[in-house]
């Protein structure tokens, strides 16, 4: 197992993020924020392919809103857990939830593999 490669272990698909001398591997799924530590023998290496993900969201923004603030707002809109939690927090305070009622669209398309010998090549 190589750090940075993708693997499946006990039902978790993720990135190999740590290989310990004791023969264990840490696999981390960044999308589900889930990790598992297992013996190397329980890890199945997975091939990878390149995709392009496009996130589109239409926002009314004022002049002067910092790019960092807008980036964090968009990130919160894209993550359904964060969006739901933000709406609930606003509702709990009796505030308008309009800033988190916006639904972004995510489009994922496969990209032709540029390097068939690169990481994850079968």
What does this structure look like?
The protein has 122 residues and is of the alpha+beta class. 20% of the residues lie in helices and 32% in strands. The strands form two sheets. Strands 4-3-2-1-5 form a five-stranded antiparallel sheet, with no helix packed on it. Helix 1 (67-78) crosses helix 2 (80-92). The longest helix is centred in the C-terminal third of the chain and has 13 residues, at 80-92. The chain is elongated, with a radius of gyration of 19 Å. The chain starts with 5 loop residues before the first strand and ends in a 12-residue tail after the last strand. The model has no long low-confidence stretch (mean pLDDT 90).
Protein traits:
122 residues; alpha+beta; 5-stranded antiparallel β-sheet; two-stranded antiparallel ribbon
What structural class do you assign from the helix and strand content? alpha+beta
Q: Report, as a whole number of angstroms, the end-to-end distance.
A: 14 Å
* Neighbour order of strands in the largest sheet: 4-3-2-1-5
Poorly predicted runs of 5 or more residues: none
Proportion in β-strands: 25-35%
SSE pattern, N- to C-terminal: EEEEEEHHE
What helical percentage do the residues reach? 10-25%
Total helical segments = 2
Query: Rg to the nearest angstrom?
Result: 19 Å
Average pLDDT, rounded to a whole number, is 90
As an assembly, this protein is: single chain
- Categorize the overall geometry: elongated
Largest sheet: 5 strands, antiparallel
The tally of beta strands, per DSSP, is 7
């Amino acid at each position: 197992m190589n750090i940075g490669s993708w693997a499946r272990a006990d039902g978790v698909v993720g990135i190999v993020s740590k290989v310990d001398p004791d023969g264990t591997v840490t696999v981390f799924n960044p999308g589900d924020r889930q990790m598992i530590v297992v013996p190397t023998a329980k890890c199945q290496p997975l091939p990878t392919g390149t995709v392009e993900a496009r996130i589109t969201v239409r926002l009314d923004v004022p002049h002067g809103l910092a790019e960092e603030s807008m980036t964090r707002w968009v990130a919160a809109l894209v993550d359904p857990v964060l969006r739901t939690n933000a709406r609930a927090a606003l509702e709990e305070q009796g505030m308008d939830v309009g800033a988190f009622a916006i639904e972004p669209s995510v489009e994922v398309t496969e990209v032709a593999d540029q390097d068939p010998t690169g990481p994850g090549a079968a």
